[in-house]
UniProtKB/TrEMBL annotation, chains A, B:
Domain Cyclic nucleotide-binding: start-end pairs: 11-71
UniProt superkingdom: Bacteria
Organism for this UniProt entry: Leeuwenhoekiella aequorea
Name this protein carries in UniProt: CRP-like cAMP-binding protein
InterPro entries per record: cNMP-bd_dom (IPR000595), cNMP-bd_dom_sf (IPR018490), RmlC-like_jellyroll (IPR014710)
Length: 188, 188
DNA sequence: AATCGAATGTGACATAAATCACAATTACAA
DNA sequence: TTGTAATTGTGATTTATGTCACATTCGATT
């Protein structure tokens, strides 16, 4: 399984065997079951996660008790409540399994160590952060420029598998529409 | 004016005089007039910008010719079409002056040099990217959880000055509502 | 196979926001 | 100073989406 982590990193930054050997112990390999929480709102956020297999949802619960999906995290995605992670505060969001999920977990402490001791890893985190930033900006753009129907079509086109793996209610929440509206969009 | 750049960097990462002396020449100091473009859609994006004074808008023009404001860039903000900048492609967005604006400009080449030669600068860029990512995610969250009126109130509270500096049409476009709706929100 | 609960679809209606049209105001250049 | 264009406000109407209610389907468990 370590090979998956190595392949993931080397997809951006080539590593020597020796380097990977030093890097690996900073991560911990963990398995979770469907509905388990990796992060619960209000807790201190000490880890971020690389999804090896399975599916997570990053959720914000508003004052009215409504759930809002900020993102789904699939294989090869990094996820956490990054705002809380980087500032070492309590989570405003929850990270929960939609399916049984396998992850590599990285504590903030080890994140700092890796960044400080391995320029390549700092480079890796920088590139990941840049692409995360760009992905978020694209999502903002789709809210600004697209109707609910268009956002639905974009999502269906970009992640067709998601529609088999995720209940409609969650897809609706991710798209920012009610589940009834989503149901009507899908029959148009 | 270089002191402004130094103060901006040192706000995150302390530098020695010698370090700053080496870093400074990687930036170029530039002045633009109201309505000037720093980036035009379709051009190669070779620079990102730190705003020293003035105000920029990052704009996406959709197929119907409608403008959408992805962000405003004020003093102390970094802005570019980062998607195009990091991948060295053509701009999908434009970056234009709302007011006369003074910036430090950083070419992608120099960005790479700085990152490679100064671990502190790589750290600086990493932290900036992280906070940019988080800011974008918060904006997504406000689209998911808040009505137009609530987004209006949030913006007014967070950046009250913006309402004196920016035409309503642009504020509306940033909030993702029509200018008529914005006008009605502001009188409620 | 039968049963229960969760997920989904759909009709009726309410509400929010877009659009269109035009008036009023402001900013700016000749 | 005047005239022109850009900006803003507001009414009337249309459209998109939310909300509520209920029926249907699907899936897991016994």
């Amino acid at each position: 399984m370590k090979e998956k982590l190595r392949a993931h990193i080397e997809n951006l930054i080539p590593l020597t065997d020796a380097e990977f050997l030093h890097i690996l112990p900073h991560f911990s390999f963990e398995k979770y079951n469907k509905n388990d929480f990796l992060i619960q709102e209000g807790e201190h956020v000490t880890n971020c996660y690389l999804v090896v297999s399975g599916l997570l949802k990053l959720v914000y619960d508003d004052k009215n008790g409504k759930q809002h999906i900020i993102s789904f995290a699939m294989e090869d995605w990094w996820e956490s409540d990054f705002s809380a992670y980087f500032s070492q505060k309590r989570a405003k969001m929850s990270l929960q399994c939609i399916e049984n999920t396998v992850v590599f977990s990285l504590s903030f402490e080890n994140y700092k160590k890796l960044s400080a001791e391995f320029p390549k890893m700092k480079q890796f985190f920088l590139e990941k952060s840049n692409s995360g930033h760009i992905a978020s900006q694209n999502r903002i753009l789709s809210f600004l420029t697209s109707s609910a129907k268009e956002r639905y079509d974009q999502l269906l086109k970009q992640y067709p598998l998601l529609f088999q793996r995720v209940p409609r209610t969650l897809l609706a929440s991710y798209l920012g529409v009610s589940r009834e509206t989503l149901s009507r969009l899908s029959s148009q």
